[in-house]
Prior knowledge:
Blueprint: H1 16-35, H2 37-45, E1 62-64, E2 70-73, E3 93-94, E4 103-109, E5 115-121, E6 142-148, E7 151-156, E8 159-163, E9 171-177, E10 182-187, E11 192-198, E12 207-211, E13 224-227, H3 233-240
Antiparallel strand pairs: 1-2, 2-13, 3-12, 4-9, 4-13, 5-6, 5-12, 6-7, 7-8, 9-10, 10-11
Amino acid sequence: MDLLSRTDPSKVNLDEPKADQILTLTNNMLLLIHSQTPITKRLIKSYSTEVSLDPETAHPKLVISLHGDSVTYTDTWQELPELPGRFDTTLNVISLQGFSSGRHYWEIDVAGKTYWELGLTYPTISRKGRAEDCWLGRGSDSWAMEFFDGEYTAWHGGVPHQLPVTKHLSRIGVLCSFPAGLVSFLGADSMTPLFSFCVGAFKDCLHLALCPGHDHNGTNAKPILICNAPPTPSSIQNAQEC
């Protein structure tokens, strides 16, 4: 208590017993946090919600799988109907389902890719032209995490937040909580928090959004895969509310 009462670190004089106590306390706290990882993983995974990608929103150079669980870039411009909801410049696609309540979690497989963007968006995100708001996280209607040039960045409202992540992540968790007004990104293997946006209150339903990026001469040709969980009655009900 004497040590903690000293608010100025420059005035703290540590003798060896006190230093050992602090090291022991820190180690025990880390062990406690580590021991909770399986519990945290089970809790977050309990919010898993099934979604499928909406091909009618996909840019013409994106190929959506039959089951709507993956998106791949192709250098061929596909002859598709020019729909109002289709992205025509940015390589985006959003989920068919939207969610307006509850808690929802998705894991996205990005293994083997050198560039990608993913996140959550309102259905009002701009779809046409080269406007900045069409990019995930660049406008006020979406929240995103990006991997580019070996660096991870979280985006919202055009503001970048560079993440101190050195490990190459193969699976990203996306968690949204309507009660908490929260959008969080996690390293899904260990449920490591990467970045969270405290929104407060969402003004509309949310859709999962993906951008696989260009293939970059074959170095980024692999798809982005949604690792779906079996749907639960509550998740289906929440999705139908949108």
